Amino acid sequence: QVQLVESGGGLVQAGDSLRLSCVASGRTFSNYAVGWFRQPPGKEREFVAALNSVADSHPYYADSVKGRFTISRDNAKNTLHLQMNSLRTEDTAVYYCVAGGRGSFYSGKYDYWGQGTQVTVSS
Predict the structure, then answer these.
(1) Cα(87)–Cα(65) distance, integer angstroms
(2) Contacts with 10 (C-beta within 8 Å, 6 or more apart), sequence order
(3) Sheet with 79-84: strands ordered across
(4) Among 11, 35, 85, 91, who pairs with 50 as Cys (CB 3.0-4.6 Å)?
(5) Pairing mode, strands 117-122 and 112-113
(6) Residues 5-53: pLDDT tens digits?
(7) Which among 89, 95, 1 has a CA at the least distance from the CA of 45?
(8) How much is the pLDDT for 2?
């Protein structure tokens, strides 16, 4: 099994930047597809970004964050990151890191979820 713990959330102003981190424990992190989802207040969870397990894979982003957010991984530290720039009030949500087999990158269904970290963007 894999355990995921997010950190780095907080309260920022519109236009600011924030970097989320997710530390994984369990089986080798480099063998998993990884990603980020978020749940705005009063809404359902939605996809944000994903990265497959192969070293040369390209990241995939939701249109709403493309050009502003960057997903990356540090396999040596078993850590996943989400760099968020030019934040908007509509980015306010609980952010979750996720992991799964290589097929998860294509199916959008992940086996492991973190507990979430709150990001609040004020105007």
Answers:
(1) 9
(2) 18, 118, 119, 120
(3) 2-7, 18-26, 79-84, 69-74
(4) 35
(5) unpaired
(6) 999 999 999 999 999 999 998 777 778 899 999 999 999 999 999 998 8
(7) 95
(8) 86
